[in-house]
Design a protein that fits this description.
The chain is mainly β. 14% of the residues lie in helices and 46% in strands. The protein contains two helices and eleven strands; from the N terminus they run H-E-H-E-E-E-E-E-E-E-E-E-E. The protein has a three-stranded antiparallel beta sheet with strand order 1-10-11. A three-stranded antiparallel beta sheet has the order 2-3-4. It has a three-stranded antiparallel beta sheet with strand order 7-8-9, with no helix packed on it. It is elongated and about 50 Å long. It starts with a helix and ends with a strand. This is Cyanovirin-N. It comes from Hygrophoropsis aurantiaca.
Amino acid sequence: MSLIILRLSFVALSSFTFAQDFGAACTNSTLDGTTLNAMCETDSGANITASINLNNCVASYNGTLTCSQTGNYSTTCSACEYGIGPLQMVCMCYDGNATYPDVSVINLDTCINNQNGTLTC
């Protein structure tokens, strides 16, 4: 019985893909509007083009960018730039109280993963 469980466990693990940090597994990343594009490594070692809409992974709460799968940071943030610092996105975000937006910075490596060449939140 334990041999069958061991074999089933091995089969399950062999089909599992491991998520890697975005910064460790992707290069040549750029931001086009709310879309992050990059060359990302697959589990087999190939590099493929990958992209993700950051509105699905980043939110602005009270003018501060944060990782969130409810996202939609672009509704209160604008003038976003990527690459100011390593893996950082900088935006002007309204906090709901101020007349003028404040600068907010987020390290996208904390929000984005590479899963076999696919960018995920």
